[in-house]
Amino acid sequence: MWAEGAVLDEDGWVTWRLLPAQVSEERIQKLEEQIGAKLPQVLKIFITTYFHYFEGGIGRNPVEDKFVGLLNAWNPMLVRNGYLPFAWDKEGYFIRCMDLGNMPDEEKCQIVQIDHEVMFEFDEETTGRDALAAEMEPVAENFFAYLDALLRGQSIEM
Fold first, then answer.
1. 115 C-beta neighbours (distance < 10 Å), count
2. Mean pLDDT of the chain
3. Strand 94-99 vs strand 111-115: parallel, antiparallel, or unpaired?
4. What confidence score (pLDDT) does residue 27 get?
């Protein structure tokens, strides 16, 4: 929905009003069962506060298809090895993940990315965390820093 008083700019863009997500705890539990992992609190709060439709870096959480961004990035091998994929980068080459190695301290859970093509070189059943860690590139100190930089339009690569 257009924000109150919003007008089209010269490029045809308009400011949109964010809509409350209205996602229940029960729906989050079903999502966690579906993906086989518990969501960190910070990610839960983010996807249950407002619907959003950011194409790159955060993932889409639109009204009509809740959690599509997270589900689109999903990879069981990453999850099994302690990486929670939540979105693709803007160009669609890298899967962005939260490194859960420091849980439950979410402020110490770095945001990393891995080139999706590298994933084809791994055996989904036997690849371990060390092999994946060698291919991970740091993106942000944590999810808070990641969102802050992304929403401000700043570079998020470390």
1. 14
2. 78
3. antiparallel
4. 84
Give the C-alpha separation, 140 to 155, whole Å.
Answer: 10
CB 37 within 8 A of CB 79: yes
Q: Are 129 and 81 in contact (CB under 8 A)?
A: yes
How far is the C-alpha of 26 from the C-alpha of 73, rounded, in Å?
22
Q: Classify 69 as helix, strand or coil.
A: helix
**Quick check: pTM over 0.70?**
yes
Cα end-to-end span (Å), the chain = 34
User: Virtual CA dihedral for 155, 113, 84, 80, nearest 10 degrees?
Assistant: -170
Per-residue pLDDT tens for 116-137? 999 899 988 888 999 999 999 9
d(C-alpha 41, C-alpha 48), whole Å: 10
Nearest to 131 by CA among 72, 76, 78, 75: 78
Residue 22 region, left (φ>0) first, then alpha (ψ -120 to 50), else beta? left
CA distances from 67 to 50, 89, 93, 99, 100 (A): 12, 16, 20, 19, 20
